[in-house]
Amino acid sequence: MSFGPVLILREVAPRVVRLAAVYARPEGEAAPRLVAEGRDYEAELLATIDGQRIWRVSFELPRGIEAVYQSDGQAHVVDTAYDGDMRIGFVSCNGEENGDIDRDRDERNAMWKRLADRHGETRLQLLLHGGDQVYADEVTHGHPLSEGWPDDSPETASDTDLAGLRVHLRARFLERYRISYTAPGFARLAAEVPSLMMWDDHDICDGWGSLGAVEETGVGRTLIAAAREAFLLYQHAATEADVPDLFLDPTGRSLSFRRDLPGVSVLAPDLRGERTRSRIMGDAGWAAFEAACDGLEPRVLLVSSVPLLGPRLSLIERAMRLTRRMETYEDDLRDQWQSYAHREEWCRMLRKVLELEAAGHRVTAISGEIHLAVRAELKGHSAPVHQLVSSGISHRAPPKAWAWVLGTLARLGEAPIPEHPIRIRPLPGRGGVYAAQRNFLTLERGGDEWRARWTLEEAGDTPWLTI
Ligand SMILES: [Fe+2]
Question: What residue ranges carry the coiled-coil annotation (predicted)?
């Protein structure tokens, strides 16, 4: 079964907007045909996986209008007027760990459909996906080498067996993306709104980077290679050959990226590619990220797949070490910036953000990960750094009791950088700190002012928050 076009934003150039459209088509079918402004663009074959061809069409649309392109004869409109008022959507956590592909499609995709309906009323111009674009946790099922991943995984395996595992995993990743990308709501948005995506753990497997030695086994290396190939193909319309052009780290170890639009930079550090139990980003990732902090636009949207600002989770984490039964949760907590294991790196990132704020940028961190909606503020020198958390678009919320625990913890406050306390705040117009409902976020620029609002599954839209 096919999917596409899924539009990926490449560049807002002076006169045109450069895009890449990614498609999957059965091997026997013709390549997709894309026409824009009377020009016929040729499709490039990126990969053949499990009887499907993955195609990319790189094309241009004129900037500043409601531009139209045809994909296999069907017209799609893309609003490329990025210079004035602007509307950006943010989503995360598109799936669930267990049984996601067997869920009722209408239930699973209810918030996608709502976002697509919104887009039908007022066009979105950019869609940011902040991690867990697919939940690939179950791709390891159904193959003898990876069936027991990660707890019961063989330490060694023959090259032939690993080659078989590779075939299995590539097919399973494609299946996950295909189901996500053909979902009602998603498909229309993907064809009309250019996307930018940064992965988190479930795009690979639960807790990737914090799993320890098993990641270095043949099975672990095969899994990360298949996940990385899938991330590049389906989330960036790219292959390894494109990595130096699209990402900040020339070595390609870290897949952090930056894209500039008029007045706003999207900065997305890769918090997975180089992660270990004792670090979030490696030397290559940090060097590339810090270099990319030069020459940013006045507004910076920092896509941090795990929330940059949050409560003192390290307290729970330390308590959890007292009991082995809590190990799964401990892994989840280890993934956070707030983990005691990452304190130094967390402070390094907070100082960088404060440095940008002091230099006159307005920085907004946007994150998913926790399947709840919440916001936080870091006291800046003259303006607060806002943290907006919106998650998930299809992952259902955890029990309300968990939201209450976090809310209680949030009252303790936290100030890893002296003089710059972090405060967790309720969403506009709401009482409890954490909102345990599925949700997405809309960011809007009107004149020089930016504002944001959450759309909650049951409670609907929050009032706008000026950021
Ligand atoms: Fe998630």
Answer: none
173 to each of 5, 12, 234, 443, how far by Cα in Å?
18, 30, 10, 31
Strand order in the sheet with 264-268: 257-261, 264-268, 299-303, 362-367, 385-389, 374-378, 422-425
Query: What are 110-131's pLDDT values in tens digits?
Result: 999 999 999 999 999 999 999 9
Q: If you measure from the C-alpha of residue 128 to the centroid of ligand 1, how many angstroms do you get, rounded to a whole number?
A: 15
Give the Cβ contact number of residue 156 at 10 Å: 9
Residue 368 CA, ligand 1 centroid: distance in Å: 7
Please answer whether residues 279 and 271 qualify as being in contact, where contact means their C-beta atoms are separated by less than 8 angstroms: no
pLDDT at 335: 86
Note the pLDDT of residue 264.
98
Q: Which residues pair with 451 in a beta bridge?
A: 444, 466
Average pLDDT score over residue span 396-408 = 86
Mark the residues whose beta carbon lies below 5 A from ion ligand 1. 93, 132
Gap from CA of 438 to ligand 1 centroid (Å): 12
Domains and CATH numbers, the chain: 1-83+120-245 (no CATH), 247-434 (3.30.750.180)
The residues near 325 (Cβ < 8 Å, ≥ 6 apart) are none
Cα 89 to ligand 1 centroid, rounded to whole Å = 17
How many angstroms is it from 39 CA to the middle of ligand 1? 40
Q: What is the mean pLDDT of the chain?
A: 94
Mean pLDDT of 423-435: 92
Give phi and psi for 67, each to the nearest 5: -85, 150
- Cα 93 to ligand 1 centre (Å): 4
What's the 68 CA to ligand 1 centre distance in angstroms? 34
pLDDT tens digits along 242-251: 999 999 998 9
Which amino acid is present at 383? A
Expressed in angstroms and rounded, the spacing between residue 64 Cα and the centre of ligand 1 is: 35
- Ligand 1 centroid to 117 CA: how many Å? 24
Instruction: Provide mean pLDDT across the span 262-287.
Output: 96
State in Å: Cα 369 to ligand 1 middle: 4
Is residue 379 over pLDDT 80? yes
211-223 per-position pLDDT tens digit:
999 999 999 999 9
Q: Please tell me whether residue 135 adopts helix, strand or coil conformation.
A: coil
Strand pairing report for 362-367 and 385-389: parallel
**pLDDT per residue over 21-74, tens digit each?**
999 999 999 999 999 999 999 999 999 999 999 999 999 999 999 999 999 999
**What is the 41 CA–ligand 1 centroid distance (Å)?**
36
